[in-house]
Specification:
This protein is of the alpha+beta class. 24% of the residues lie in helices and 19% in strands. Belongs to the cyclophilin-type PPIase family.
């Protein structure tokens, strides 16, 4: 075979191989493939970032134990109990009746009652609630301004009716009442300072004390009852103790046993609603 014939045969083999080979990737197709890879990487990164948010990360604060959450800072939202009837998840405790609606227009005042009306005296208050009567002894000797205000609000029907909008069951142990709006943000229209706050921040079981904001002069109409010994912060001066429960603490304990509504069963609107229907006060004779 001549060299010319060998070259011709080699040329034919090459042509046959070219017919069965895959066509080369064009520039436009290659660009699309690269873009697809980049897009896939972006989607994977986005998914990794989004997952913690979808499943609930650790950025949602939870009430802290040991008094970090105080009766002063409750903003639990409008109590369903104050709207009348029960909301989803609520149930009446034994011996309780359905709560009445909120006051259409809560009463407001501007003048702080004179503390001289209570100074040096002791009083007995009967708080009628949808779960029974709670009897309080008010100490006008140690907390005359607070007791004078309490008596004034009772006589004017400020709390008739009003829900106890907050129960706490971890770290601190209180039932908070006294806001006719049921939001934890309502007040009578005036404020006054702190009296008779324990320097060590310890509040015995059955103590009656005032709730307030961070402002030490924001005492008004909201108060709380401790159903277990409770340690509270002393920052800002603490919380005024102005009396104690002498009868009916078992009612508070019963409400506390059912805790608060989700998402925070340790601090919020009580599962078992309780509302104040009226408050009467008489001076205790020696």
């Amino acid at each position: 075979m001549t060299k010319e014939q060998e070259r011709a045969r080699a040329r034919r083999r090459h042509e046959e191989q070219q017919k069965t080979a895959k066509p080369p990737v064009s520039d436009s197709t290659r660009d699309k493939q690269v873009f697809g890879v980049i897009l896939a990487v972006i989607l994977v990164i986005a998914a990794v970032i989004a997952v913690p948010k979808l499943v609930g990360g650790s950025d949602t604060p939870a009430p802290a134990a040991g008094g970090a959450t105080t009766p002063a800072t409750s903003t639990a939202g409008t109590s369903a109990a104050g709207k009348g009837g029960l909301q989803a998840g609520q149930k009446l405790a034994a011996g309780c009746t359905a709560p009445p609606p909120l006051q259409a227009t809560p009463k407001k005042q501007t003048q702080v009652p004179a503390k001289a009306t209570a100074a040096g005296k002791t009083f007995v208050a009967t708080v009628k609630t949808t779960c029974g009567d709670i009897t309080l002894e008010l100490d006008g000797v140690k907390a005359p301004q607070t007791v004078a205000s309490f008596i004034n609000l009772a006589k004017t029907g400020y709390w008739a009716p009003s829900p106890c909008h907050r129960i706490t069951t971890e770290g601190i142990f209180v039932l908070q009442c006294g806001d006719p709006t049921g939001t934890g943000q309502g007040g009578p229209g005036y404020g006054f300072g702190i009296e008779n706050a324990p320097k060590d921040g310890k509040y015995a079981k059955g103590v009656l004390a005032m709730a307030r904001t961070q402002d030490p002069n924001s005492n008004g109409g909201q108060f709380f009852i401790t159903y277990k010994e409770t340690q509270l912060p002393t920052d800002g001066g603490g919380y005024t103790i102005f009396g104690k429960v002498t009868k009916g603490l078992d009612i508070v304990e019963k409400i506390a046993a059912n805790k608060a509504l989700p998402p925070s069963p340790q601090d919020g609107t009580p599962v078992s609603p309780i509302s104040i229907l009226s408050v009467s006060v008489t001076e205790k004779k020696a």
